[in-house]
UniProtKB/TrEMBL annotation:
<dbReference type="GO" id="GO:0055085">
    <property type="term" value="P:transmembrane transport"/>
</dbReference>
<comment type="similarity">
    <text>Belongs to the binding-protein-dependent transport system permease family.</text>
</comment>
<feature type="transmembrane region" description="Helical">
    <location>
        <begin position="213"/>
        <end position="231"/>
    </location>
</feature>
<dbReference type="GO" id="GO:0005886">
    <property type="term" value="C:plasma membrane"/>
</dbReference>
<dbReference type="InterPro" id="IPR000515">
    <property type="entry name" value="MetI-like"/>
</dbReference>
<feature type="transmembrane region" description="Helical">
    <location>
        <begin position="270"/>
        <end position="298"/>
    </location>
</feature>
<feature type="domain" description="ABC transmembrane type-1">
    <location>
        <begin position="135"/>
        <end position="335"/>
    </location>
</feature>
<feature type="transmembrane region" description="Helical">
    <location>
        <begin position="169"/>
        <end position="193"/>
    </location>
</feature>
<dbReference type="Pfam" id="PF00528">
    <property type="entry name" value="BPD_transp_1"/>
</dbReference>
<feature type="transmembrane region" description="Helical">
    <location>
        <begin position="45"/>
        <end position="67"/>
    </location>
</feature>
<keyword id="KW-1133">Transmembrane helix</keyword>
<feature type="transmembrane region" description="Helical">
    <location>
        <begin position="318"/>
        <end position="338"/>
    </location>
</feature>
<keyword id="KW-0472">Membrane</keyword>
<feature type="compositionally biased region" description="Basic and acidic residues">
    <location>
        <begin position="1"/>
        <end position="17"/>
    </location>
</feature>
<keyword id="KW-1003">Cell membrane</keyword>
<keyword id="KW-0812">Transmembrane</keyword>
<dbReference type="InterPro" id="IPR045621">
    <property type="entry name" value="BPD_transp_1_N"/>
</dbReference>
């Protein structure tokens, strides 16, 4: 009996070895290589596409709900102080204010996804038609100020690191500039260079590239002074730290020109913190442009945002707030991508996760 059972087991094993496909399929395991490949693609996809998209959606919900429950009547600019119930009900139905908040949000975010930012109650016009002419002016101002910040800030940091006697002077100057608010810088520059010397116009943004460049020089400088000094301080500290490393001193001791060692090792190793601060500074310039636009009478997104808040034009405020959130999210995503390019260790760690 035992011999017969042993023979049946041997026959079963022999048939399974001849036909591997006859093995129990539920017992088959997924290839580890396939699982690693899926994680390798899904991780960066979520990190650079999914997470930014979720951030924008959550921010849009918070912005909409916060403005919806804010004090004030958005219909006051249309109805006046004592509207009749019939007039108010008609306007609420016209602008969709009679629906539940969640339905209002879904209608608004659905329109935004299709390029429709709603209708301004105060100006009685589509929001995008009000933002489009002002958007180019604000982006031009931020780009102009960003170039000044990065150009002069990094140049001062490199000069202060290479030529040590200049470092003390730059420390004093940058410390003074960091403490100057943008509205103070705007007032001083306007009084001295616009009203006093007449070198630049006092108000407006100009027409055409050259005229706009001339009009926006003082606003860009006022916006860039503090942030350029801050970037110079951070970049100089990062460059100094790398310049004091042992391998840099060893390279110079071996006869390699200092500028060559500085370019290949100091700048490259200090690039990650410098790029990080540069991106955050540009994001801060977007927010800080509001004060400068008001000070110089520039009809941009920032000054329009202030007027929209004053008139309780919530559709315009929502659109501008969402646009600013989108810009910041794009900047941080690009910054994350640059980090993986500048530091391969971050890319490897992200893939392993």
């Amino acid at each position: 009996m035992a011999t017969q059972e042993r023979g049946e087991k041997l026959n079963a094993l022999d048939s399974r070895s001849k036909n591997p496909l006859a093995a129990d399929r539920p017992g088959r395991r997924e290839s580890p290589r396939r699982g690693r490949t899926a994680r390798r693609w899904l991780g960066p996809l979520w990190r650079w596409v999914g997470l930014p998209a979720v951030t924008v959606v959550i921010s849009s919900f918070v912005i909409f709900m916060a403005l919806s429950v804010a004090p004030g009547d958005p219909l006051a600019t249309v109805t006046g102080s004592h509207p009749t119930p019939e007039t108010r009900a008609l306007l609420e139905r016209q602008y969709g204010l009679d629906r539940p908040l969640i339905m209002q949000y879904l209608h608004w975010i659905g329109g935004v996804a299709q390029g429709d930012f709603g209708h301004s109650i105060a100006y009685r016009a589509p929001v995008w038609s009000l933002l489009a002419p002002r958007l180019g002016t604000s982006l031009f101002l931020v780009a102009y100020a960003g170039l000044l910040v990065i150009g002069f800030g990094l140049a001062a940091a490199v000069a202060g690191t290479i030529w040590r006697p200049l470092s003390s002077l730059l420390t004093v100057v940058s410390g003074i500039c960091v403490s100057i608010p943008a509205y103070v810088a705007a007032s001083v520059l306007s009084i001295v260079f616009a009203t006093g010397l007449g070198w630049f116009p006092t108000l407006g943004a100009g027409e055409g590239f050259t005229d706009r460049l001339w009009h926006l020089t003082l606003p860009a400088v006022a916006l860039a002074i503090g942030w350029g000094a801050y970037l110079s301080q951070v970049a100089r500290a990062a460059l100094r730290e790398q310049a004091g490393r042992e391998h840099v001193e060893t390279g110079v001791a071996r006869g390699i020109p200092y500028l060559t060692v500085f370019r290949r090792h100091v700048v490259r190793n200090a690039a990650v913190p410098i790029v990080t601060v540069s991106a955050l500074v540009v994001a801060s310039l977007i927010v800080g442009s509001v004060v400068v636009e008001v000070a110089f009478g520039i009809d941009g997104i920032g000054s329009f945002f202030v007027r929209s808040v004053q008139t309780k034009d919530y559709a315009s405020v929502e659109a501008i707030s969402l646009f600013l959130v989108l810009l910041v999210v794009v900047l941080t995503t690009v910054l994350d991508l640059l980090h993986t390019v500048l530091d391969p260790r971050l890319r490897d760690s992200g893939a392993s996760r």
